[in-house]
Amino acid sequence: xxxxxxxxxxxxxxxxxxxxxxxxxxxxxxxxxxxxxxxxxxxxxxxxxxxxxxxxxxxxxxxxxxxxxxxxxxxxxxxxxxxxxxxxxxxxxxxxxxxxxxxxxxxxxxxxxxxxxxxxxxxxxxxxxxxxxxxxxxxxxxxxxxxxxxxxxxxxxxxxxxxxxxxxxxxxxxxxxxxxxxxxxxxxxxxxxxxxxxxxxxxxxxxxxxxxxxxxxxxxxxxxxxxxxxxxxxxxxxxxxxxxxxxxxxxxxxxxxxxxxxxxxxxxxxxxxxxxxxxxxxxxxxxxxxxxxxxxxxxxxxxxxxxxxxxxxxxxxxxxxxxxxxxxxxxxxxxxxxxxxxxxxxxxxxxxxxxxxxxxxxxxxxxxxxxxxxxxxxxxxxxxxxxxxxxxxxxxxxxxxxxxxxxxxxxxxxxxxxxxxxxx
Length: 424
Fold this sequence. Notes:
5-stranded mixed β-sheet; single chain; alpha+beta; 46% helix; 4-stranded antiparallel β-sheet; 2 domains; 424 residues
């Protein structure tokens, strides 16, 4: 009987022996049926490339099929079931076996395709883009080949996401800050279920934003805020040079900033939060008028013009709405800090509110939008850290960043003036 030297197929029909001498070594020629679904093209191309890679490794060890090769290192030893990562899932395949005279040898390409890192990276990227663990299989390329797949169950996806992100989070929360020259610091908190996570974002002298750190607690109280700043200082955040600190109206946070930075910190209270606090004490018919009046004051270029407008407004509200008047007077001067420093209008608008950190926290809320039940604080920390890392990749320099040297000089002048007062 004459031996048939045509193509041979394995039991599962995946691996085929081919003569690859005609295929360019610099690339693979992958044959795709254009009539198939676009999503299935990736899987089919991956399977073909994988088969060619396997055969290349076999030929490197054993030589061409059915040809005498004196220097061969091993012999073909049939096929066996294997598992590789492709298209965001684990796929069962038939892989070729190669055996030397002493033991079975590993194929470099099989070890490469077997690596689980691409699968974990794909899962993290999908989940952070709000693909739920239950819908993850539907987000993958089509499986029109009846392949046996694994690693796409909701529990498996959740485990991989948690384990894969904790390593990144640990690195994120321990990054050294000693080489970062922070000109302004923004601090605010985000509530997730029963947990509050206080966050800090720094602004360097080139106008670049940096997510510095987070700390979890039940509320945005003094202890939580102090723990956050202590962590930043331990990691190298400088406290011995002037810095602008932008916060909301939290009294606890104000005390912590004073304790940590002393008179080196110049505090700017968020004008938006102040407006919201004041109008929350007013009836609907008064809110628009008072808000416009406060806006008019905050748009002034001189604090001597802005302060009388606000004081006059507080006086008019005193008798009918004493709560609104008290809220307006509380911390009034610190809402005018950036005006007092004489900063250019564009930069002043970037620094007069906590919008820099609020925009980052909005991304945190969006990333964690699929979470309906917050089991514990560790879960809250994980999602906030993931959200901030996503936000950090989207950060752009603030508007008016070219004027940041003027901010630095203004803070230095203020510090010199304070030092002279202490000497006197």
